[in-house]
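QA checklist item 7 of 12: single-chain prediction sanity check.
[x] sequence parsed
[x] length recorded as 271
[x] structure emitted
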Amino acid sequence: MKTPTASFLLPSGFAPPGAGAVLRELSSLSEVGRASVRRASDVVTRGSAISGGDGGPVLLIPGFMAGDPTLSVLARHLRGQGYRTYRSSILANVSCTWRTSRLIETRLESIVERRATKVRIVGHSLGGMLARVLAVRRPDLVSGIVTLGSPVLAPAAHHAVLGSHLEFLLLLSRYGVPQVMTPDCVGGDCARQSFSEMSSPLAEDIGFTALYSRRDGIVDWRACLDPSAEHVQVPSSHIGMAFDPRTHDAVTRALGAQGAGESGAALGDVG
């Protein structure tokens, strides 16, 4: 299937998951079930080896075509761990990446002004790519980022089903629908600028943990292994990262390590 994204967004060495890979995402149903069991039993990592949060602000950014409610389970978990969570104010992440990043940048400025401290960002998929861009652009606002299944090295290394969704958004833009991605967002100057920022070095004092899954049926997991990040493997599906308690525990560990200034290498993979 021909993709609407530019070739520079799919560097050599990366490839979209095969057609049948998306079937692995069916396990997200069981991952939602795990989240329900945890909530029902009120097991929010109490008494575990995971330390409590430091009360710092954490901004959550949803993935492609998703909105803030998709990260509500993760937000609840982080609040239970002692963090102060903030929404991105995204109803559906379908707009131009540059425009969305500017809106979130304004959101970050507001949080920093209110809390008088830098913000850590947790982003799922495209949300993590936006987090990477913002960490490069505004090191004065961001102290650390955690990405969940975010193909920062090859944004176009995604399943064909996402390509069809992009085609639909581009069709809407051609018919004059506002606030959706345009051809420039996936193959023009906008895409080049975003990819350039996403690939730029981070300030030394910004923590970066990249969570990935070899079971990912949506993106090439290898594209999630940013060399600037500490890598943590989780057993979730791509979609399930938003809900799976095992991934949420890994996020908590990552935030705790960033807050303590520890090496993310001690985090380890999640079984």
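[x] summary fact logged: DSSP finds eight helices and six strands in the chain.
[ ] second reviewer sign-off
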